[in-house]
Write a structure and sequence with these properties.
The complex is a heterotrimer of chains A (about 260), B (about 290) and C (about 90). Chain A is an alpha/beta fold and about 260 residues long. Chain A has eight helices and ten strands. Chain A folds into two domains: about 110 residues, 2-Layer Sandwich (Nucleotidyltransferase, domain 5), CATH 3.30.420.40; about 140 residues, Nucleotidyltransferase, domain 5, CATH 3.30.420.40. In chain A, the strands form two sheets. Chain A has a five-stranded mixed β-sheet with strand order 3-2-1-4-5. In chain A, strands 8-7-6-9-10 form a five-stranded mixed β-sheet, with helices on both faces. In chain A, helix 2 crosses helix 8, helix 3 packs parallel to helix 5 and helix 4 packs across helix 6. In chain B, helix 2 crosses helix 8 and helix 6 packs across helix 7. Chain B is globular and about 70 Å long. Chain B has two domains: about 120 residues, Nucleotidyltransferase, domain 5 (2-Layer Sandwich); about 140 residues, 2-Layer Sandwich (Nucleotidyltransferase, domain 5), CATH 3.30.420.40. Chain B is about 40% helix and about 20% strand. Chain B is built from eight helices and ten strands. Chain C has about 90 residues and is α+β, with helices and mostly antiparallel strands. Chain C has a single domain, classed as Alpha-Beta Plaits (2-Layer Sandwich). In chain C, a hairpin with a 2-residue loop joins strand 1 and strand 2. Classes of the chains: A alpha/beta (about 260), B alpha/beta (about 290), C alpha+beta (about 90). Strand 9 of chain B pairs parallel with strand 1 of chain C.
Chain lengths: ~260, ~290, ~90
Amino acid sequence: MITAGIDIGAKSIKVVVLKDGQVAAKAIDLGGFDQKGTTDRLFKKAVAEAGATEAEVKYVVATGAGKDEFLSATDKVTEVTADARGAHMVHPKSRTVISIGAEEGRAIKCDEQGKVVDFAINEKCAAGAGAFTEAMARALELKVEDLGPLSLKSDNAVPMNAQCAVFAESEVVSLVHAGTSKQDISRAIHDAIASRISSMARRISIENDVLLIGGVAKNPGFVASLKRDLATDVFVPTDPEFISALGAAHIAHDRAVAKGGA
Amino acid sequence: MVEYWRWKEYRWTSPDIDWKTAKIISCGIDVGSVSTQAVIMTDGQLYAYSNMRTGSNSPDSARNGLDWALKETDIKQENIHFIVATGYGRVNIPFANKAITEIACHARGANFMYGPTVRTVLDMGGQDCKAIRCDDKGKVTAFLMNDKCAAGTGRGMEVFADLLQVHIEEVGDLSLQVDKEPPPVSSTCVVFAKSEASALLRKGVPKNEVLAAYCSAMSHRVFSLLERLGVEKDFVITGGISKNTGIVKRLEKEMGLTPLTPRYDPQIAGGVGAALFAKSLVEKQRAGA
Amino acid sequence: MKANYGYKDGSGEFFITIDTDKCNSCGDCEKVCPSKVISMITNDYDEVVPAVVDEHRKKIKYSCAPCKPVAGPRNVPCIVACKPGAITHSW
């Protein structure tokens, strides 16, 4: 039985297709100017990669900021629900799931069955999400992929005063003029956002294992800063940006089975 | 390359006052994160002032501001009896005699510039937004300062001026050139509002409408800060953004109140208040001696 | 005087309000705060009153988070400790 999960994020769209509950295809693309068009195209591509036709897809669950945009979805779930399910599938010992995307950060407490017990959300402020590191990379004239590894070269914790992405950009420029090394600035950037994320996470009280998912989990500088701030180990699954879509795909599978599919 | 965010710097000297006859020459320097004003007063009268962009170094900015304010006069720094520094960079000025918060200075300055009927002051600066309630003597009775978030600050406006390639001094008027007010941008956050604006521009929405949508959202946000303190007339707006008609007109509409018209440059309120505090401190010193 | 420390950003309004007219300068609030957010100062009008320290002023949503868990009882120590009721939080 073919089911699918689609995560329409603020920046990128992720699709996961399952065949009898096993991952058959994954696809990702930037939402871009025509989000709806990209979503439809990406879905077709993933289904084809899974060796199926669109008609064979029994159930599709949509999640993410743009979940209402995918008209072919059978159902929708909140990002918190999708995150928790996806985290449980890849790392069943997860009790604290931290999910950081381009525009939103979430901290979720789960039980042994992967059910959501509590959650906290950082939304509508760029300083608490991926948009922050992107803006900082621009200010330093670096690619986002290079910003993380650069921060790992620093031994110096330089404090960052600004709590806003716009003011932080000015602060970064001042630090550059003052002669602070780019690696120290990069570390300061990651320490700053990690501090905000871990404060949010502490509101639901941290319980091991801590799992980090979402696009920002691919940033090694952020992972290092977060581990330091939480003072505990943080697990990052393979393809962390797909976990939400994966969770949605598994929920689709459960619901299809419950409806009498096989 | 055009710098759309850059506004003109300027200075002024009073044509009528002879400083040599003054008993107290006091100075207030307001070192903000974006702009610095130096104000010289003679016996509590406005004598000279300057307004320039704050550099990367606060003490240097204060120094340069003061030098420029004194430039077309024959006053020297040693003629000044007392200097009060205020603003974000106030604690760093070695040649200032005292530092006083910008909240207290803005209330005092507004009381001087607009008169004793002022009760509510909204100051919209480069990197902050302040709402102040004061009494008839310019003493603060309530305040709120937001310098965490760029929304509603000069920096937020500069980001949009840059994005739309419109000179910052023209942003306000351009935003008012709409027949019907468009819906405000849905994000308060400048970063997210910028993405929204980019998407609108790509769809072919004209610049004046995009600016109107942004100014609408920003003035509403600023209004909610005022609401927290409660607004009592008379109401005035100070700071750089008071020159942005797009924000001022929209605020007037939402508040149902017209702010008093400034007789002096509204950006010097902090410096004026600081200079007045300086004068009082000299009077206290002389009375005590 | 009502001093409001904090901010409003995209995610909400976070203000700690100190009513200096009600404050008796006892300093208990500073003693009980686990995150060192509040400190006693002498303000511009020579009153000894609590203020939110500069280090935390722009991130009180995060600094005060330990006293405001998502679940469980909410007894914010500074508010509880203040007998004249001079401290309020907007969230």
